[in-house]
Specification:
The structure is a homodimer. Chain A is built from 17 helices and 16 strands. Chain A is α+β, with helices and mostly antiparallel strands and about 500 residues long.
Amino acid sequence: MRGGNLSGSEGHLLESGLVVPVCRTRKPSSFSPPKPKFFTVRRSLAIRAMSGSPAVSLKEKEGTPKGSMGSLISTDPPKGTRDFPPEDMRLRTWLFNNFREVSRLFSFEEVDFPLVESEELYTRKAGEEIVGQLYNFEDKGGRKVALRPELTPSLARLVLQKGRAQSYPLKWFAIGQCWRYERMTRGRRREHYQWNMDIIGVPGVEAEAELLSAIVTFFTKLGITSNDVGIKVSNRKVLQAVLEKFNIPVDSFPAVCVIVDKLEKLPREEIEGELDKAGVPSNAVEGILKALSLKSFDDLEALIGAQSGAVAELKQLFALAEGYGIQDWLHFDASVVRGLAYYTGTVFEGFDKDKKLRAICGGGRYDRLLSTYGGQDTPACGFGFGDAVIVELLKEKKLLPVLPHVVDDVVMALEDSLRVPAAGVAARLRSKGRVVELVIEKGKKMKWVFKHCDTLKAKRLVLLGSTEWDQGKVNVKDLDAREQTLKTVDELIEST
Amino acid sequence: MRGGNLSGSEGHLLESGLVVPVCRTRKPSSFSPPKPKFFTVRRSLAIRAMSGSPAVSLKEKEGTPKGSMGSLISTDPPKGTRDFPPEDMRLRTWLFNNFREVSRLFSFEEVDFPLVESEELYTRKAGEEIVGQLYNFEDKGGRKVALRPELTPSLARLVLQKGRAQSYPLKWFAIGQCWRYERMTRGRRREHYQWNMDIIGVPGVEAEAELLSAIVTFFTKLGITSNDVGIKVSNRKVLQAVLEKFNIPVDSFPAVCVIVDKLEKLPREEIEGELDKAGVPSNAVEGILKALSLKSFDDLEALIGAQSGAVAELKQLFALAEGYGIQDWLHFDASVVRGLAYYTGTVFEGFDKDKKLRAICGGGRYDRLLSTYGGQDTPACGFGFGDAVIVELLKEKKLLPVLPHVVDDVVMALEDSLRVPAAGVAARLRSKGRVVELVIEKGKKMKWVFKHCDTLKAKRLVLLGSTEWDQGKVNVKDLDAREQTLKTVDELIEST
C-alpha cells in the first residue's frame, strides 16, 4: 500500500512540503493594541508609479490627502509564497533549530548552495514531476536557469567540484528553500523549506541506517512516537530484479521507477500506457505490480531470489535498525519507489499512521547521480524533509510548541529628560546578556507599560523617575514576584 | 568626505555586500584524505542529456567506461553565486548567530519575506542603482517579478498587510539573501546576505539611537573597536533645507538625493547634468556641495538655521549616543546621503577607518515609504548590514574566528559483526546530547581512525572489539588525557 494520500512523489523534493500552509501558532493577545492613525488598509492590485518618497516636511501637493500617496499595492506575498511574520518565524526557527541539533548529534556538517542553478542540473528525461514543475526562466544574459527544486543536484555538483580536496565519507546537511512552478496552479505553494542529510562515499546500508536513525531522533525530539509515524522502506533493486526477469532494457529503469511511483495517482490504463512507451511489455506489468505488493522478506525472497542484493541489503538495514532501537518505526513495503529518477538502492518514506497527510519525508540511495553528471560513480544516500507536513502533523497531534517572544527587562524613562540615562541602563543590562525592551515611544502611560510588559512576558520593569534618579536610583519592579525596590544602577546590574 | 572607496550607495542594499567574496577560513589539514577512486574531475561546460541513472548492477552499455556517463557538467555555481561548503558555512552561521544574538538583546523579533517579489515593489523612478540592477524576469504566468534586491520594501508590504492587527512599535529584524543583476558584469557577486533591523511606529530619533547602538554592540561582540570602525551620521533634512532655499520642487527631492550620493563616483559635470534634469538650477549646485562638506553642528546651524529640524534631530541623536556609550563611534558628516530614494531623515553609514573597504552597513529613516505604497504615513527607520565587507574587515583585523567541526565521540566497531551494537552505543550517546561520529565505512585501519579523530577534534574514541564485548565492555580512549579504560555501556553513558 502506498503512502496515505500522497499525491506527489518526488523523493528529496516532497511535493507535500510545498502544499500545506504552515499553521500559525498566533494566539489572541489579551492586550488591545493602540490603534495607529496611519493605517487604512485595503487590498488593491494597482501600484502608484512612484517617483520616490518626498521628505516629510515638504509641502504636499494640492489635492493629495496628507500621508496617502495613491492606491494601495497588493499587500499579499506573490502567489504561492509566504511571508514570515514574527509568530510564523518563531515556529520556523524552532523547527530549523531541531533540524540542526539532530544533524549535529550525528556529526553532520552544514552546507548550502545557490538558490539559482543552471537548468541543466535538473533536466533529466525520466518524466519526473519535479522536472515538469521546474521554476525556470531565462536570465538577462540568456542563460537557462531555475530556482532550485531540490538540494541534491547542487550537493552532487559541489562534491564533484571539491573532488579530491576532501576526505570521505562526507556527512553533510542543508536546510534550504526549494521552488516549483505549475502552469496549472491549484492554489498550491511554490516554495517550501527542506532539510537534507546526505552521506557521500559509503556504499553499505550502514549509511541509510544512520539517516533513518537521524529522522527518528528528530521525531522523538518533537514528541512524535512510532504510534504516530512510520517509515516505509524498500529497495529499487526489487523492481530492478523484476525488470531483469522480463529482459527490460537497462536504460528504462529510471523512467519505469518514476511511472510506477504514480500507481496510486493515475488510472491503471494510463500507467500501462506509460510503461509501454518506456519499453515495458504488458505481460511484465502484472509481475511488477505483484512485486510492489509484497510486505515480507520471505515473500520477496520467493519472488526475486537473493541474487539481486535487495533482500540482503534490506535484512542488514533492519538488523542495524534494531541496534539503533528504531525497529518499531520501520516497515518493509515494496510499494515505496519514490518519484525521482536517480535512486538506485534503498528508498524510504515517512508517513503518518492516521493516513491523513502526504509523505513527511523521503529519501534513498543514489549511487549513480555523480556519474550522470560526468563524474565517477560515488556511493551516496540522503533524504529530504519538508517544513510543511511535519507542522500539519504536530498540529494534528497537539504537539505544536507555544513560542512567545520573551523579554527580560523593560526599561522606561518616566520623563523625556531621562531618556539619555535610560539608554545607558538598557545598554548596561544588554551587556550582561539581558534581553531589554527600551521604551522609545513618547507619551506612554503606566497602564500601557504594564500591558506591554505582560505582552512581552517581561520579568522586570525598570523605571527612571527624576526623584529617584536624583538620588542615583531606579525603580525596579519584579513582575513575577510583584515586588518593587529602589536600586542604584550598579546594584541593578549586579543583581542581574 | 564620503565613505572611503564606496563605489555604490544603496542604503539598505550594500553594494559592497555583493562584491567581496567571503574569505575562507579553511586551514590545511594535517590529515591527508584517502584518495577516493571515484573522482577524475575536470571542468567542462557541457552536460550530458541525461536519461536518468540506471541502477548499479545493471549491465553497462558497451563502449561506455564503467561509472563515467559522459562529459562533466560545469561544477562551478552559476556566475555571481556562491556555494557554502562546510568551512564557509561555519563562518556564515557564526556571523548570522551574532546578528541574531544582538537583535535578540534589543528585543527585536525575526521575520522573513519571499525571495521572489513583484517587480513593482522596487521600480521607483529616482534613478537608484538598486533599480537599474534589478534581477527581474517574467514568470511562466507572465508576471513581472524580481529576486528581492533588498528587504525593506517587503517589510513595508507586510506591515501594510498586517495593518491594525499588530501593536506598535514593531521591532523587526531579518537575515535574508538579496540579489542583483548587472548586464555589464564585472565579476561581481549577484547575491549577498543582509541583516536588517527596523523599527516601525516611532517618530523620534530614539529609534535611530537604538539601531546605532545595536550596530555598535555587534561590532564590539566581534572584537572590533571604534579605532577600526566609525559610523557617519547625517540627516536628509539638511539637503532638503538647501533645496527649499533654492525653491526646488518637492518631487525632485528623492532623485536629487540619489544623484548627490554619486558625487564621489561620477565626474562633476555629469552630476550637474543629472541635477539639471532633476530641476536643480546650476546656481544651487554650489549650495548643495557646501552643505555636504559640513562636519560640525555649528556650521550646519549657520548654513541652514534650526528650522529644518535637522540640527535638533542630530543633536538629540548624539546626546542619546552618549547615554548608550557609543559616542566614540559616531561622526557627524553631512556628505552621507545614501543612495536609496526612500530615506527622509537620519541617514548613516558604517566605514572602516583605514578607508580600504566599501561601506560596512547603512540605513536611515524612511517615514514615507508606506505612503508611497498607498498606505498612510508611518514613521520608520532601519539599516542593512551585508555579509561580505564585515568578513573582509575581520580578515584585515585578524579577528576571523577559527571554527572547526567539533565531535565529542567517535564510535567504531572493530569487527563487522559488532556494527549493530556499535549503532546502539552511538544512539545512546546521542540521546545524552553527545555529538557522535559513528564509523560506517568498512575496512578502516586503526591508523586511519586516530587520524580521523584528530581531524574531527574528537574528545573520546569508543571501540567495540569482540573480546571486550563478550564481557559486556567497550574500550574507551580519552584522547585529551591519552587514557584508556574498559567500561560497560552503562558506565560509558553515566560517565558522559
